[in-house]
Amino acid sequence: MKNLWISLKITLAMCIVLGVGYVLVLRGVSAVAGPNGGEADVVTLDGQVVGAANVGQRFTDVRYFWSRPSAVDYNGGGSGGSNKATTNPEHLAGVEQRVQDFLAAHPYLSRAEVPAEMVTASGSGLDPDISPRGAQAQVRRVAEARGLDIATVRHLVDSLTQKSWLGLFGTEKVNVLRLNVALEELNEN
């Protein structure tokens, strides 16, 4: 019986330490070391919050840059990939359909020019960024839909491209939400 009480006390102590203490330690580390003090990086337009910069969102209008496809329909509560192998017939059919849809919206591109990221979902299904190549492939469509000069939209993409750290770590990327908000602000001026 003595061992039972010791086990229960240790279990309760570990629940408190790991269930509460660990969470508080992680929260403290994120507040010190994380971007925005550990808070979500929200994006605003005209004083209204339009989304979080670190979570991918669906954009389907031709006037906007499109995000990567999402296997979880951009649901932040259900992050994850499709878990289908690259040889899975359903996966291949889905990718082929997205390639055809992308080419239909971008008739000036050849099949070889379609960026792979624009037709395949990310591992999280919530990737907020695309590569500069993925954004540049969409410049002409967006510029024409908005009645803007292609060079102006291309410059906007270049100005919002986040470079890799010291040119060594990470990849260049463009946050789709920030890019689309910048487009809206550009149209307002």
TrEMBL record:
Q: How does it sit in the membrane?
A: Single-pass membrane protein
| MF GO annotations | ATP binding; hydrolase activity; P-type potassium transmembrane transporter activity
Q: Does the keyword Cell membrane apply?
A: yes
Q: Name one GO cellular component term.
A: plasma membrane
Q: Where does the record place it?
A: Cell membrane
Family under the similarity heading: Belongs to the KdpC family.
Q: NCBIfam families recorded for this chain?
A: kdpC, PRK00315.1
Q: Write the protein's name.
A: Potassium-transporting ATPase KdpC subunit
User: Gene encoding this polypeptide?
Assistant: kdpC
